[in-house]
Amino acid sequence: MSGNSFGRLFVVSTFGESHGPALGAVVDGCPPGLELCEADLQFDLDRRRPGQSRHTTQRREPDQVRILSGVFEGRTTGTPIGLLIENVDQRSKDYGDIQDRFRPGHADYTYHQKYGVRDYRGGGRSSARETALRVAAGGIARRYLEQRYGITIRGWLSQLGPIELEPKQPEIANDNPFFSPDPDKVPELEEYMDALRKSGDSIGARVTVEATGVPAGWGEPVFDRLDADLAHALMSINAVKGVEIGAGFESVTQRGTEHRDEITPEGFLSNHAGGVLGGISTGQAVHASIAMKPTSSIRLPGRSINTAGEPVEVVTKGRHDPCVGIRATPIAEAMMALVLMDHALRHRAQNADVPDSGLELRDLLGE
Amino acid sequence: MSGNSFGRLFVVSTFGESHGPALGAVVDGCPPGLELCEADLQFDLDRRRPGQSRHTTQRREPDQVRILSGVFEGRTTGTPIGLLIENVDQRSKDYGDIQDRFRPGHADYTYHQKYGVRDYRGGGRSSARETALRVAAGGIARRYLEQRYGITIRGWLSQLGPIELEPKQPEIANDNPFFSPDPDKVPELEEYMDALRKSGDSIGARVTVEATGVPAGWGEPVFDRLDADLAHALMSINAVKGVEIGAGFESVTQRGTEHRDEITPEGFLSNHAGGVLGGISTGQAVHASIAMKPTSSIRLPGRSINTAGEPVEVVTKGRHDPCVGIRATPIAEAMMALVLMDHALRHRAQNADVPDSGLELRDLLGE
Amino acid sequence: MSGNSFGRLFVVSTFGESHGPALGAVVDGCPPGLELCEADLQFDLDRRRPGQSRHTTQRREPDQVRILSGVFEGRTTGTPIGLLIENVDQRSKDYGDIQDRFRPGHADYTYHQKYGVRDYRGGGRSSARETALRVAAGGIARRYLEQRYGITIRGWLSQLGPIELEPKQPEIANDNPFFSPDPDKVPELEEYMDALRKSGDSIGARVTVEATGVPAGWGEPVFDRLDADLAHALMSINAVKGVEIGAGFESVTQRGTEHRDEITPEGFLSNHAGGVLGGISTGQAVHASIAMKPTSSIRLPGRSINTAGEPVEVVTKGRHDPCVGIRATPIAEAMMALVLMDHALRHRAQNADVPDSGLELRDLLGE
Amino acid sequence: MSGNSFGRLFVVSTFGESHGPALGAVVDGCPPGLELCEADLQFDLDRRRPGQSRHTTQRREPDQVRILSGVFEGRTTGTPIGLLIENVDQRSKDYGDIQDRFRPGHADYTYHQKYGVRDYRGGGRSSARETALRVAAGGIARRYLEQRYGITIRGWLSQLGPIELEPKQPEIANDNPFFSPDPDKVPELEEYMDALRKSGDSIGARVTVEATGVPAGWGEPVFDRLDADLAHALMSINAVKGVEIGAGFESVTQRGTEHRDEITPEGFLSNHAGGVLGGISTGQAVHASIAMKPTSSIRLPGRSINTAGEPVEVVTKGRHDPCVGIRATPIAEAMMALVLMDHALRHRAQNADVPDSGLELRDLLGE
């Protein structure tokens, strides 16, 4: 495979370019009987959709998804679910002048080297527009995980440049355009972003995503650990440069007595593990954070070369997000949903007959 | 698959438990004609091997690898390479008292929940002893990458608890028992570890690994990006809790003008990308770091429960590494080798006929 | 995966039901730079298309394929190719009376048992309409194989019920509605089919497919042999009950001295092997035949049960092929193209650097 | 992968050459809790083992399998099962004179063309000795299928050259050296084989394998149909040239009214489908037959060429089976076991929650 599929049992294959006629996906392996309609997927698509506030790109895409197969009379049938989103608001002429030059920090040069040919309009296949289909496919996984297992997946912006955001009210992160889990910080974020946009520059961000209600026992040692698959999934999102599970890089300076999560008959006393031990879920919240780089598509000129190897100055026009981290929250949630869904299916394939241990440890963190 | 295989075209499948008769691996997909003998793999195995200094576990395993197939008259034949390492120095009686209790921070509880049954001796399948086979298999990839493409993979310890280590002389990191790239810091490390060992506690670490000589164009967008596959590979190493590519979490506070690596006809002016853009290698050094948690196997008592759900105190006997990060350097190198090898093969499958662009950009970092 | 993808490196994933809004496919792994437009795929689609003569189903589907991605300015870019065919001429009401009963010889009962729910209209996912996408995807493989390697794939009807057809002029099999390689037999076929249609019954068939120009060395021992992958591919076509490579079941009564294909410096003296030895291509014509069962959708009543387990009589209305083998020729060709394409890519991944042996043996058969 | 693994969820990877130190396998995905010891696997290995009668090769290999991992205190743990069989009775000097010449009908030429290098001793990797590991791995699947689902898999020789064998008593096929299901024909088989051995020639055969007790609903449309996966599995056995499911090639001349298996509330009235409809099991006996070519390793001289392209005469020394079909019965059973096991796991991954339909149709064939 050329890397456009994700998952082993719940397999999502996406296609489509930023300025082509449409993007789509095939979702293979969904259990039959799940109630599903297009509106169910639209909620998350709208959260990811551009143009929702002045802080994101002004491209106006309705991102309306059509279900082309795999659903009959309102329920999944177990056959592959075809998804399609048509591109509506392309402005391909914006990209004529990057046809033969490489934007620094962008995939232009690497696609050119790899394939010899590329659809340069809007980044082509390397555009984050592809993630709309991940969000749609992830929405299917999400519904199943919630209805079958009671799993809730929730993400939020945990840092934007210098501004750190505590998860004070993650459940209302959707109510502001930044997915800030701390509503009191929204004015500060707005001010920061307005100044940034004015300057023409961009900024990095940190996004956190968490799943609660995941049963103990999901994840396949040795290579396909739940955390390793999460790392794969999250690092595959455009612009991500780092992934942490649980304590993440804080573990480097922790002692064993501090890091290890002690257990009582009622549950775990802490969750530095991020809900994964030995690659397998513990029953605690599965917790991951990602670092997102500042978008490379900025209007401040940068040094580069063209396809002839000559030095050029690059100024990126088009409509871009000054902080791609903002719209990344629903994407990270979707990728976590895909990983959990895949492991749910893998787990029951092999371990369907394992008797219940009688142990169910709660996450006592913060109680 | 139950997760014991890694790679799509250069596929490594491992088996074996810490205290079983032997561990082994099948390496499928190695090109024919590569000169290979057991001694070639032993060098890295010896670097990972326990008992090399007083700072690692005192289990005495020769970790002598046998090649059982796939090599004929000193060269690979293109058929699968069977590898075997016998266990010699098991002391299984050390583990009798954890048979029915879960060590905090360990995979005991999750294996119990997943499988209902587990080989508790020395951690069984969850033991880091499995990584010996990764190092052996990675050694094959390494040789191929070096001989066919001139790629060098080099790792080092970049932080041990509070002690940060600059890559002053990474090329001699092998010459000290800590894989420190800064030889001047070795006495400080020794002192720290001696005190730690005395205390009975353990500590986290940070390891960095870098590949130079990787051609531009390797990596498969969208999901199987080179960095996503690296994240998967590195996060699958026991005790890893975080992965960074290039600037990693520093990207969160960087501006676009700072992060983007500008290009001149001679090459890239910086490498915040860590050698990967859009999931595809740029030709620069591929650069990754990992966070390793402090080992959970410590002799300081911790609260836990037993299989009946009753509270118990756990003290881990046996012989363990107070800092698993120390021996992780060759493992991280091996995993990077496996990822690069897989993408080398994948790249040429699809892009064998892409004409040379005439562009080859050097990494001008630090020049 | 739930089985809707085919191939390891050239991966085709299909979706869609007979009476849903559309069917589609994602083709992942196509090398960049191949000239491709929709018309290139339409030729084979038209050959498979229903309603071309009175001897096949009278459903009128234009089967017009749209390329939604992966092609830019007339050339493939190396990114996934999205294909879409809309359903136009559904007459779903024909199927109301099989909603709760199982047609004998059909997948109704097995889908019901597997999924608990099914889209009964026109067979839903089990309909041979899905093969239109295989033909489209196979058309891409075919073009590449022809342009890059000079491979020609050609199929024909080799038997229809009792009428055996010799490959007298396989190159003009397209010129008659039966894909008969013997034009003189066409009147006999017409007469047979007219009588059959009148009787309301259906008949089995045998189809042969052959690829010439395949280089020696393609195919992966041990499990993914070229012939094993062909068997998988061909047996996955609706209604196929048997697959033969080369001499096939004639081998049962052959002696070793008769079956083995002797070699001279000019080439092979026979081709009982069907172009594959040890799972790897010999350079001779790759030759396979399939047995197709008579379609189960006939208007002659048959005994069956309904979903309540009660006995019912089933009469299949709708528009069906009295011999599904007739339209199977382009499908078998497409599946052979997909297998060869996948192995072309797999071969060069591992064996890119194998030096030319200097040996190239022709197929001397019939000279 | 280079084709040395089989299965998606129950994955068997084999390694080893005919005259190397050992052959082995990794079996990944076995559910935990299955009682398993080496003796359980030895029964089938002994059935396949050479030298059991004068009618097979006289190489004396004990084929004693060791379980190296994945089993603890007599039960599988869910971790990969490592299997090893050491080679004992190699007589590599027999093969010196085929080092640089290609035996007709053998994989010598194709391996040479593919890899440029080959272990010529005893056929190296292309030797049917590799199938010993398939039998061992299949033995694990078999035990699980029998204990968990009550499935019985049984194979027999259905034709040896001109001698057809009816399945009069398939349950005692093991009691004679030919796996003949008709004990009365054994003297005729002995006579035929004695004359054949004397002549120096070899002969083809037909083997049939059947699984009873398979639940309805296993198999994944569209590509990974149960019958397509069986075709893949069976065609991957050395020397197989054809595969039939159910009526197989007889379907070509059947009418729909004859072929379709009618259904009554008690069950199916016939089984032309071979237990598979639309790629999914019906609950009837899953029935397949294979055609095996006559072994190419015969002492009667044949024309060929050497690696320099010069004409040579080839006489195969060494110890070979004059009819490879005889020992193929346990191999075919093993491959059917692997396919069913894989689909058992795949089925419950996706369809674990499908409610029982209340329908269970027996196979009324022959009642």
UniProtKB/TrEMBL annotation, chains A, B, C, D:
<comment type="pathway">
    <text>Metabolic intermediate biosynthesis; chorismate biosynthesis; chorismate from D-erythrose 4-phosphate and phosphoenolpyruvate: step 7/7.</text>
</comment>
<keyword id="KW-0288">FMN</keyword>
<dbReference type="GO" id="GO:0009073">
    <property type="term" value="P:aromatic amino acid family biosynthetic process"/>
</dbReference>
<feature type="binding site">
    <location>
        <position position="48"/>
    </location>
    <ligand>
        <name>NADP(+)</name>
    </ligand>
</feature>
<keyword id="KW-0057">Aromatic amino acid biosynthesis</keyword>
<dbReference type="InterPro" id="IPR000453">
    <property type="entry name" value="Chorismate_synth"/>
</dbReference>
<dbReference type="GO" id="GO:0008652">
    <property type="term" value="P:amino acid biosynthetic process"/>
</dbReference>
<feature type="binding site">
    <location>
        <begin position="238"/>
        <end position="239"/>
    </location>
    <ligand>
        <name>FMN</name>
    </ligand>
</feature>
<comment type="function">
    <text>This reaction introduces a second double bond into the aromatic ring system.</text>
</comment>
<feature type="binding site">
    <location>
        <position position="54"/>
    </location>
    <ligand>
        <name>NADP(+)</name>
    </ligand>
</feature>
<dbReference type="GO" id="GO:0009423">
    <property type="term" value="P:chorismate biosynthetic process"/>
</dbReference>
<dbReference type="InterPro" id="IPR020541">
    <property type="entry name" value="Chorismate_synthase_CS"/>
</dbReference>
<dbReference type="Pfam" id="PF01264">
    <property type="entry name" value="Chorismate_synt"/>
</dbReference>
<keyword id="KW-0274">FAD</keyword>
<feature type="binding site">
    <location>
        <position position="278"/>
    </location>
    <ligand>
        <name>FMN</name>
    </ligand>
</feature>
<dbReference type="GO" id="GO:0004107">
    <property type="term" value="F:chorismate synthase activity"/>
</dbReference>
<feature type="binding site">
    <location>
        <position position="319"/>
    </location>
    <ligand>
        <name>FMN</name>
    </ligand>
</feature>
<dbReference type="InterPro" id="IPR035904">
    <property type="entry name" value="Chorismate_synth_AroC_sf"/>
</dbReference>
<dbReference type="GO" id="GO:0005829">
    <property type="term" value="C:cytosol"/>
</dbReference>
<keyword id="KW-0456">Lyase</keyword>
<comment type="subunit">
    <text>Homotetramer.</text>
</comment>
<keyword id="KW-0285">Flavoprotein</keyword>
<feature type="binding site">
    <location>
        <begin position="125"/>
        <end position="127"/>
    </location>
    <ligand>
        <name>FMN</name>
    </ligand>
</feature>
<protein>
    <recommendedName>
        <fullName>Chorismate synthase</fullName>
        <ecNumber>4.2.3.5</ecNumber>
    </recommendedName>
</protein>
<keyword id="KW-0521">NADP</keyword>
<keyword id="KW-0028">Amino-acid biosynthesis</keyword>
<dbReference type="GO" id="GO:0010181">
    <property type="term" value="F:FMN binding"/>
</dbReference>
<feature type="binding site">
    <location>
        <begin position="293"/>
        <end position="297"/>
    </location>
    <ligand>
        <name>FMN</name>
    </ligand>
</feature>
<comment type="similarity">
    <text>Belongs to the chorismate synthase family.</text>
</comment>
